[in-house]
């Protein structure tokens, strides 16, 4: 009797968690290329999206610059060896 109650409660408590994961998966799988700002149908959304894209490009350029510097240092060290 007690094991049936425990099993029933475990099944009931697991259902909401499965549902929440299924719904959040559908929401996130919409379109991953747009970022956090969404579609941007108005001027504010367009500006927000442009600012986000500018920041990302600037950040990626900085990372690329750092990687190139590291590569140059490694090439110099390899030539010394």
From TrEMBL:
Keywords: Mitochondrion. It is found in: Mitochondrion. Residues 25-35 have a biased composition (Polar residues). The keyword Lipid biosynthesis does not apply. This is ATPase inhibitor, mitochondrial. GO terms for cellular component: mitochondrion. Pfam families: IATP.
